[in-house]
Each structure stands twice: as C-alpha cells, then as structure tokens.
Amino acid sequence: MRQRQFFFVVLIIMTLAIITFMSYNLHSTTKRHSPALANDLRRLAVDLSETQRSLVHLPLQFYKVGESIQLVKHLIKSVDGQWVQEDKVSNSPPSKKYVTKREVCPEKYMGKDSAYGFPFYRKGFEGENCTDFVPIDKLVTMVATSPKELSQEELQKLFEGIATYYPRVPVIFMLNKTFNFERLKKPSLNLSFTAFDDLMHGATWSKILKMVTTPYALFAPDIMYFTDDVNLERLVRVLSENRDTIIAGGSHKNQRGEWDNSCRQVQFRNWTAYFADGYYHSFNDCIACDVLLGPFMTKTKQLQDLGIDQKLHFGAFHDLFWRLKLKHPEKVVVSCPDVMFDTYEPEVPDEKYDALVKKWDVKKWVESNGRVRWYGCRRGTHNSKSSCGIPGKGFTVPPCDLENLADIVKFIMRECENTGIHCQLNAGTLLGAVKFKKILPWERDADVYFISDNYTAIQKLRPRFEAAGYTFKDTKGTECCTNGRRTSGIFLIYGNGWKVDFYGRPTLEAEILVANGQQPTKVMLAGQWVTATRNPGLVARNRYGPNMYHHVEHWSIVGNTHGDALYKSGVWNKCPKPGHTGCLNQFQTDGDRQFGDHFMT
Ligand SMILES: *[C@@H]1O[C@H](CO)[C@@H](O)[C@H](O)[C@H]1NC(C)=O
Ligand SMILES: *[C@@H]1O[C@H](CO)[C@@H](O)[C@H](O)[C@H]1NC(C)=O
Ligand SMILES: *[C@@H]1O[C@H](CO)[C@@H](O)[C@H](O)[C@H]1NC(C)=O
Ligand SMILES: *[C@@H]1O[C@H](CO)[C@@H](O)[C@H](O)[C@H]1NC(C)=O
Ligand SMILES: *[C@@H]1O[C@H](CO)[C@@H](O)[C@H](O)[C@H]1NC(C)=O
C-alpha cells in the first residue's frame, strides 16, 4: 500500500517535471536559460530526493528515484548553461575539460595485501610521485579558531603541529580581541592573526572568506591539535576531481576523545528540522552529507558566490548547508572520515540557534541522538513568550503550539480526575483523540464538557489554573433545569495563545457509566488517558459523518459559520507559502501515519 503511494507521488512529480520542461521549451525557445525553470527544477530535485529517502527500505524504488534525481540534476545544469558532467569516481582520471592543470597528485592504493601498513595501517593509500602538481600552499588557506579553553602552551603546540606538516600553507588565525598574542612565540609558518569580537559570528567568517586568495579554504573552527590526520591533499583531490562537490570535510574527535564522521542528513517537515545519522551514497570513499558538524574545505570562489549570512551571530555554517540542500541540490557536500580533525565540541544552548531557526521558520529541532530543541512558543522553554498559537489557513499547527494545547487539555482532565469532577472530551478534541490519539494537527481550539452540578467545585480550582500559568474565566453560571438537573455553566481557559471551551452539561455519559458501576471510557490524548464519551468511535462517526477518517481543516477555516454545519473532508486549502515546511497540502488527506515524528526515523 505504502509502496503504491510512493510510486504515485513519484509519478506525479516526474510528470510535472516533464510538463514544466516541455512548456518552457515551447514558450521560450529563444530564452533558453530560464532562471525560473532552473528554480522549479531545483525544487523538484529537492522533492525527489526527500521522496527517495522515504524509499530507503525499498531498494529497487530507491534506485529508480535516484536515476530520476540524476536526470533532473542534468536538466538543471543544461538550463543553467553549464555542460553536463558526471561526478568522477575513483580510478577514473579527472576530465581535461574541467581540470586544466593537475592540482594534487592522484593517489594509489598500495595495500595489495594486508601486510602493507601493518600494524597501524596509517599507510595504504598514497599520493603518487607525480611532478606536475600545484604546491599545496598555492591551493589552500587555513582559516582557524581555537577554543577559549585552550591554554597558551596548547595553542603554541597547535601552531607547531601546523608548522610540522604544512609550514608554507597560509593560515589565518582568528582570535578574540582580548587575546594577547604578543606573548606567543612566532612559529615558522605563514601565519596571520586577525582579531574579532565574536569568533562564531557569520560576519566574521564572511569577512575572512573575502580575504582568501587561494582556490580552496579550510574552515577549522575550535581546533585543538594539528597532526597528520589532517590530510589537505586528500580533501583538495576530492574537490578538484568532482566538479559538483563544493565542500569536503572529515571526521572529528572531540575533547572527550569521541569520534564522529561529522555527517548528518537533515529533513524539513512540519516546522521541524530532523537530523539523522547515516549516508545514502558515497564516492572516492567519502560519504555524501547534508550537514557537516566538523571542519571542512571549500571551493573559495563558489563559496564566495554563495556567501555566508552576515546577520547570523551563530549557526552560519548550518545556514550554509541548509541553503545548499534546499536551493542548490545539484551541489554535493561530503565527509571523508579518514581525514580527522581534533576539535573542541562546545555544548550549544538552544537559544544560540534562535536567529537561525527564525530565518528558516523552524520551530522544533530533533538531533540524531534524539535530543529535541524547542523553538517557537513552547511552554517551559527559553522562548515560551515568543509568538504563540494559531498559524494561518493552509498551515499545520507548529509542533510546539500543538503540544501547548494538548498540555492545557491534559491539565484540565487531570484536575477533574483528581478532584472527583466529571469531565469528558468533546467535538474536535474528541475527534483528534479518535483519529490521532492527540490534538488535530490543524486544530483551532479545544472543547471539554463538565457536569453542571460540578460548577462550584470547578470555581474552586481557579488558583490551580493560575499557578499553572493559565487564565481562568468564569463567564456564565448554571441554570435550572433540564430533566431536574442543573444545566449550562461556562468557563474559558486561556494559555499560550489558545482557548479551551469548558462547558457545563446536565448529564455526561461518563457519569452514567460510573453510576452503573462501570469504568468510564478513556482515550489516549498526547500520552495521557483521558475520559471521553461512552463509545468515542461511534460519536465521532455520527457527529462528523461519512469519510470522517479523511481529513479537512477546521470549520472556521473551511468557511462555515459554526461547528455544527456539515462539511466534506478530503481537500486542503491552498498553502499561502508553497514549499513551506508547514504546508498542510504536502500531506495526504487520509491516514494518520504521516503525521508525527515516527515517520522520520
Ligand atoms: C614515492 O616516493 C617515495 C620515496 O621514494 C616512496 O617511499 C613512495 O612509496 C612513493 N609513492 C608511490 C605512491 O609510489
Ligand atoms: C573572548 O574573550 C572574552 C574575555 O576574555 C571571553 O569572555 C569570551 O568568552 C571570549 N570569546 C571567545 C569566543 O573566545
Ligand atoms: C603567505 O600567504 C600569502 C597568502 O595568504 C602569500 O601572499 C604570501 O606570499 C605567503 N608568504 C610566504 C612567506 O610564503
Ligand atoms: C460532581 O458531580 C457529581 C454528580 O452530581 C457528584 O456526585 C460529585 O460529588 C461532584 N463532585 C464534586 C467535587 O463536587
Ligand atoms: C507536527 O509535529 C507534531 C509533533 O511532533 C505532531 O504531533 C503533529 O502531528 C505534526 N503535524 C503534522 C501535520 O505532521
């Protein structure tokens, strides 16, 4: 079933691609290099590559979509007016067209039997002894910072390390303005110091990038030691021989000795950036990555054209990788883990990424180790005060806001349960629990019923609501009577941009069940069992009518004047920002497996 769905998606995307391509060709035979077409093709390449990732368990389909991605990338290049060229894989000589002069000697695998390099295997692949190469100091500039945790002696050692292996390579070392570098012994290397207020600021790296005159630049923030584990020739070779590869990094080892290949994949969906370990393809024994977490070498001119965001005080490299992934899918980023950097890995507090996530409208950040960073308005986090609540029509409710609404409902239900007050879920809140076991991803408010007899008991709960940070409004008292029981009574509970309608009813099914010595029915809501109507599935079906398991946005969004009018499921509104990660119309209008984090892992 899932397989067929994916095929369908792929088919549609490919058809669109062909139609787009054809129509452009028909309408603009004179204007061949249309930037609009190139942009459409880029979006298509990104979509396809996300589709491919979800097919990773279906090798044949994965391979087929991979072929289509290659095709689209070729189209991008021909539209961009560049000639089409394949990535070179190892053993095949670099194309004469691209590399006019060999920059580094090719390498050769010497380890024909396992005795070569024994016992430590620090040898195996070796640069050939060619004569027509460019000296490494004409190719690479090293741009480095060291962590403030490094002592004067350790810094001295770092410079000596560079002097041992690459004495002539220009090094731009960025230092804190307050650092006294007069006291350093000048090591014998081509070193220049530059002082900045903020070493991680995008503006700092941007300025330095403009100073680089060699064709390659090694960006090495927070470097601690320098040994022959850093093989500059290896990185230059990969970049030099693969036209589309713009960045090549290596593994890194942190201050605790923990090694990591630095390679992460990232997917953007539902206002969330999901990071994952692993790789989908490799060449030259380097693995293709979306994001590198350690130092990397880049093609200077290409990076200068792309630029580094000068406004970001932190996370400018993430921004660069995200831009490459989403706007330049034909460019390749790799990690060659045999090249290893010793770096200091600082703990990054969530708020450091505030500007970055704001730029990209990311409200949740899930790291490959499962750590979640909340942005947007999430109760109990550093920016719980930032703009809260309900997004526009056509958008999903951001994860943080959805959790906030679930929190209020769960709080109410817990308070009811603990104090012997009869409460139960109603309307869309019940529908959400029935369909998703949580709040509807496009919800606009929540609805809970209580028994009117319990009105004064609820009034007494005001201080508890206020202590939890919620506004408690007592808007209407009870009335007499329906079938001899008090009726009505209205409370409104506000919090984090949301409203919960908390309405009194003369009788509730839950109470009837209890009076008959039975358990009230409970449904799962965002991780908590809460009381619902007697038969939740029946109520949901009878209330919402045919196709209630298909989806449709809230009644107020669809254009109805009240919640009781019947409306049809199965269509989303248009998304005001096509391609935005929060667009509802990127989801199917049926099925709940697609909503939530489990889909991504
Ligand atoms: C290059 O020459 C050195 C010294 O003669 C030798 O040790 C090394 O094995 C040669 N490398 C290759 C790849 O032939
Ligand atoms: C720069 O120096 C100041 C003062 O010594 C220190 O507080 C700050 O953390 C340093 N920043 C970096 C990035 O080293
Ligand atoms: C040091 O590097 C710069 C490029 O950054 C170069 O212009 C200069 O000639 C180099 N100096 C020496 C002594 O090699
Ligand atoms: C809530 O109402 C029910 C039914 O009338 C009653 O049995 C119960 O004692 C009430 N609970 C409280 C806390 O007043
Ligand atoms: C967005 O993420 C939240 C939290 O992970 C999830 O509950 C919700 O269903 C997701 N919405 C969509 C439309 O996937």
Automatic annotation (TrEMBL):
Residue ranges of every copy of the LicD/FKTN/FKRP nucleotidyltransferase domain listed in the record: 416-463
Entry-linked Pfam families: LicD
Biological-process GO terms, alphabetical: glycoprotein metabolic process
Transmembrane segments: 7-26
Keywords from the UniProt entry: Membrane, Transmembrane, Transmembrane helix
Keyword Membrane attached: yes
Record-linked InterPro entries: LicD/FKTN/FKRP_NTP_transf (IPR007074), LicD_transferase (IPR052613)
PANTHER family documented for this protein: FUKUTIN RELATED PROTEIN, RIBITOL-5-PHOSPHATE TRANSFERASE
Name of protein: Fukutin-related protein
Protein's organism: Stylophora pistillata
Lineage: Eukaryota, Metazoa, Cnidaria, Anthozoa, Hexacorallia
